[in-house]
Amino acid sequence: MVRHLQLTLMSIAVSFAFTACGGGGGGGGGTTIATNDPGTGTSSTGTGAGTSTGTGTGTTTGTGTGTGTGTTTPAQAALPAALPASAVVTMSCPDGGSYQCSGSAPLRTENGVTLTSSGVYAYGKSTSDLATPNPNVASATGYAPASGGIVEMRVAKDANALPSGTTLLLSNLGISWDGKTERPPIIENFLATQGRVTLGANGAVVVGALPASTDLGFYDYATKGAAATQANYANNHYFPRTAPSRCPSDVPAASCATTEASAPQIASGDWRAGGTEPDVLRADRLHEDGDIHAGNDQPAANGTPAYLTGATGPGVPFPGAKGYRSLDNFGYRYANLTRWVTQDGVNIVEWNTTNEHNQNRRGLVSYGDVTPPASVPATGTANYVGVVRGWYTPNGSADPTPFRADATVTVDFGTRQATIAVSNPVPDDSSTASLPVALTMTAGFGATASNVANYMTGTAASGQMNGGMGGRFFGPVAGAGPAEAGGTFTLNASNGQSIIAGFIALRR
Questions:
Q1: Which residue, 104, 128, 161, 260, could crosslink 319 as a Cys pair with Cβ 3.0–4.6 Å?
Q2: Highest taxon of the source (predicted)?
Q3: What is the spatial distance between Cα 131 and Cα 477, in angstroms, rounded to a whole number?
């Protein structure tokens, strides 16, 4: 018997609201995007990675030298080791010259952040689904850091750097339909029409026709059962369609969704006029990945269509039957920061397993047109200002709060050191809730002329939380240094308290 995960319209509406605040969740569009990312604030809960308690100059306990005011300066960071000479450390996007991308192959992971050819990323996993018993199989909450997965971002931009479309690619994130093998890679381009999304031979995104539910050579569950081709049940966009949606009985007919997505919402920031607010692209989609009801059962002897157990009509039942995806892409001319979420049905009963439930993954990617390593200056200094976006949870079980903050980056090309300060944090909903995410980090970047001269890495600490950061330089070098900088960072404590965030900044 099929057991649909109850992604009712109420939970979908909550997801929409979350995304409207710059967080994850929800599909189908319909939210209103402000000219700038919503919310402002100036509250700050700290000014450094440690505090001192004296009234004069003193030494803190391992995080730096205090001045008696609560501000500390992190110690000088070690420089990253060079990559193999064959490593690609500049941007090359398979979808063409109008795209900016992060690169598909992880080069290394250090200090909790993964380096790719033209980006850095960090991500984590939900925790509610790890509890016994699971408190809510229809949803997933909480957060804990994770590693080992592959995250890739691509964004299309016009000649003025305004975004127009995006693709999120995810794999090896510990998402399994059958409880044994990793589900097929996710290729999410937030398509608002029917179609099937694949990657071409060169890695470019290809949108093809969606096979009909009667194509049992493609949808082969009817003949192979749980040994069916999982890849044929992934990255399909089934709605809108002629046949009506078949929502669960507890969803009013008038509220039963008939579409998976709408066009991405796009707003330009004020960075072109001297501000720091980036352009914003927001995209959401309800998905049905892994639902075997995409295809029919074998027809009756007289040719009458038949449906697999649990279905009362052709195709998947309704938009969002197996989850949703959402992202916000914040961008300047060369640098981007993406905050993404995917919620997915796992241990799906029709794939010969039990305990079907939902889990989610979420993360940050800083990526774009990186500065060629040989172009990074050997001397001089530069200052950058920009924005931070991320999530914070006080204990790992509470759902993460999306937040925004200011970023200041000070770079010394002679010593190969960068100091990144996060200040003025405020929840995305502009509430006055206190968030202990203000901190200062020091990163070292590669030696002059090395192939990691455009890459920085370092440790990070805030209160009881420890972790690290990774970053890149973006754009051409003119005057004092590269045009832009960006990065991601992740910290956590033994009690589950965690920060995962990223930044992009302009040279000013």
A1: 260
A2: Bacteria
A3: 50
Q: What is the pTM of this model?
A: 0.88
CA distances from 216 to 262, 295, 305, 307 (A): 29, 7, 12, 12
Band (74; pLDDT cuts 50, 70, 90): low
Q: 3-state DSSP: the chain helix, strand, coil percent, rounded to 5?
A: 10, 40, 55
Contact 454, 472 (CB under 8 A): yes
Dist. CA 127–CA 168, nearest whole Å: 23
What pairing do the DSSP bridges indicate for beta strands 439-445 and 455-462? antiparallel
If pLDDT is split at 50, 70 and 90, which confidence band does 279 have? very high
Class for the domain spanning 74-507: mainly beta
Mean pLDDT score of the chain: 89
pLDDT (0 to 100) of residue 84? 98
Torsion 55-59-61-65 (CA) sign = positive
Q: Are 483 and 161 in contact (CB under 8 A)?
A: no
Contacts of 174 (CB under 8 A, 6+ apart): 125, 146, 148, 149, 182, 361
Find the length of the chain: 508
Residues 445, 482: contact at Cβ < 8 Å? Answer: no
Helix, strand or coil, per DSSP, at residue 236: strand
Task: List 427's β-bridge partners, or say none.
Answer: 403
Give the CB-side neighbour count of residue 470, counting CA atoms within 13 A: 24
3-state secondary structure (DSSP) of residue 373: helix
Tokens 């975004």 correspond to what residue?
163
Instruction: Determine contact, residues 316/308, Cβ cutoff 8 Å.
Output: no
- Quick one: pLDDT band at residue 431, thresholds 50, 70, 90? confident
Structure token pair of residue 8: 């009712």
Question: Residue 71: its pLDDT value, please?
Answer: 42
The percent of residues in the chain predicted with pLDDT above 70, rounded, is 85
